[in-house]
Design a protein that fits this description.
InterPro entries: LytTR_DNA-bd_dom. By secondary structure, the protein is an alpha+beta fold. 44% of the residues lie in helices and 15% in strands. The chain has two domains: 147 residues, no CATH class; 102 residues, LytTr DNA-binding domain (OB fold (Dihydrolipoamide Acetyltransferase, E2P)). The chain has a five-stranded antiparallel beta sheet. Strands 6-7-8 form a three-stranded antiparallel beta sheet. Strand 7 and strand 8 form a beta hairpin. It is elongated.
Amino acid sequence: MGIPAPTTLPIGRVPVQPSLLLYVILPLVLLALPLALFRVTTGLDSSLILSLFFWSATVIVGWLSAAFGSTLIYRLCARWRPPLWAITLAGPIIAALLLHRPIAEILSLAHSFQVPGPDFGQPAPLRLEWQSLDRFFRNLAPGTISWVALNYIFDRLLGIPRYRYDVPGAEARAGGRDERPVKAMPQLFDRVAPAERGRLLAIRAEDHYVRIYTDAGEGMTLLRLSDAIMMAHPVAGMQIHRSIWVADDAIRAFRRAGHAGLVRLSNGLELPVSRSFCSSFERHIRMLGLA
């Protein structure tokens, strides 16, 4: 889908959903926890529980606002296809401009919790007067930098697409990696970066995403497995597990493991065949002459 992901890490082995990791766990750990521990805004004499509660709520609201702003930019500017950095950078700024009044109220509420002390003064709310624009952007900087950085990590390192656009004719610009006619290419390849488009090998569901394996690499996209299998047409294959589908011409070996089994693909990847699919899969590979 437009922007290639040069490196892919095994995010599927992390026992949390990618959306939960991006929108809840990471902002709380990277932003809310340090701000709460140092009692920023709430005051050094305030309780840790109060500071944690305040900053957790504030960070999550700000983080979701950044996501809202980025999604707004992504959809409104689709005609110009801005890069990921522009979408994620503009998102928090747009959200702050639209929501500056509620944000100012939140900061005022924080000050009401603060125990008076010599180390902290009145917190400065987000104001839009020209003379305080520098303060406006300083307040936005930590969250904005974190938002941009994490979106790039998810998109470029973990292979989880973030604000990507389909690129018309990308197959023709992919350097001739796949020489089949465009009509013969599965629709699923619209969800795969050009550099990863090769021969389709397998599809694996991971939470709300599917991982797409090709002989050129692998990538992830937000999609149900049932929809991904339909979009794999005209590539023939079979579902071997409630979360796995494999292409017929990618199968190289199969062996039983108790009531289940393991199938080895042309790229060396081994995938489990569940008990409920094992007998039908054995019949299927005998029909293909692979048994």
